Each structure stands twice: as structure tokens, then as C-alpha cells.
Amino acid sequence: MKFRKSFVTNSSSSSYICDICGAVESGFDCSVDDVGMYECVVGHIMCQDHLKQRKKDASIDDLLGTLHKNITRYNKLLQEDQTRDNTSYVEKWLTEAEGDLVIALSLNKDDGNDKYTIYDLCEKYDLNCNLPSSQCPICKMEVISRNNIIEYFLKNNNTDREKLALEVKEKFKSYDDLCEYLKNK
């Protein structure tokens, strides 16, 4: 099976790898949300368990930021006449998003009923796949991704993957020897 970091539209199966713990989730024609993971706007993918703030606790500021960004983007597309045959769809979406923005501006995050509305709006505007960097534990440097740890090690030791792989191959006669060494360290 091939592992892909993000959704691939021409594939019948998709796999997602958590950038924090390396857990792999996969399925057929699934999105990151379908397998119980999140993706931040930078592209970090993580298991839901790694988030201190779940989407139910998403901040109104994050929701407002997403709405403003999308409304601005769609308005720009309309002004530049880049919507092609989708002009009516974009205009309908803009009307709906502007209405949701009015609702979002009136929300009180401390009110239990409003939290459900925030959750619904976050779901509608896909904050699972566009988790704001303010809620991403990697972007906030609360945890370091597995990849960044390796890249830091390589740079800090003035080496690269190929040199390190060669060193490992020279030091160990078998895969079992390498695993035993790693287990005992």
C-alpha cells in the first residue's frame, strides 16, 4: 500500500500518517476527517487525540477568520471574472457565507447553545481540513513533528539521510541487529 500525506482524488484508497506519532489511518475514498484526523492550514496531519482544543471548542476568532478569508477570496474571483460557469454558485455561496458571518459575529463562546452553532459552522466551513495554525500543536511548537526531529538531527550533525543510512548499514549486519540496538538504547 502506498502512503500519502493528503487526499488523492484518483485513488480508490487513501492513507494519512500522523505527523506527531506516526499512526496510520486509511480507507476508501476518504478524507482526513473521515479517518478521525485533522489537517492544519500549513499541512500538518494529526490524530484527534493530539489536539488540546477539539473542534467543538473552536474559537469564534478562528471561525471569523476563515469566513473573512473565504468571502474575500470569492469576492476577488467574482471581480476578476474568474468564476467561469460557476458565477451563480459563487454568488449563492457568498450570500450564505455573509449570512453566516452575521450569525458568527453574534455568538457568545461561553453560551452552551452557541458552542453547538460554532461547531456547526466550523463543520460547514471545513475547519477539520483547515485547522487554524493557532490550534495546531506543531505550529504552536507544543510538539515537534517526527519529520522535523529527523531534519533537525541531520542538520545539527552536519549530515544527510544518505550518509546516515550508509553509516547504519556499515554498523549493523542485519535488520534484527538494528532493532535490538534501538530497543536497548
Provide a descriptive summary of the structure in words.
The chain is mainly α and 185 residues long. It folds into 3 domains: 1-53 and 131-143, no CATH class; 59-126; 146-184, no CATH class. Helix content is 45%, strand content 9%. The strands form 2 sheets. Strands 1-2 form a two-stranded antiparallel sheet. The longest helix has 20 residues, at 60-79. The chain is elongated and about 65 Å long. The model is unreliable at 53-57 (pLDDT under 50).
Topology:
Elements: E1 13-17, E2 24-28, E3 37-39, E4 45-47, H1 60-79, H2 87-105, H3 112-124, H4 146-156, H5 161-171, H6 175-184
Antiparallel strand pairs: 1-2, 3-4
Helix pairs in contact: 1-2
Using brief descriptors, characterize the structure shown.
elongated, 185 residues, two-stranded antiparallel sheet, 3 domains, single chain, two-stranded antiparallel ribbon
Question: Care to give the gist of this entry?
Answer:
The protein is mostly helical and 185 residues long.
Overall tally of domains: 3
Q: What level of helicity do the residues show?
A: 40-55%
Distance between the termini: 31 Å
Tell me the β content. Answer: 5-15%
| Content-based structural category | mainly alpha
- Unreliable runs, pLDDT <50, ≥5 residues? 53-57
Tell me the overall shape: elongated
The biggest beta sheet is recorded as: 2 strands, antiparallel
Number of strand segments: 4
- Arrangement of strands in the largest sheet: 1-2
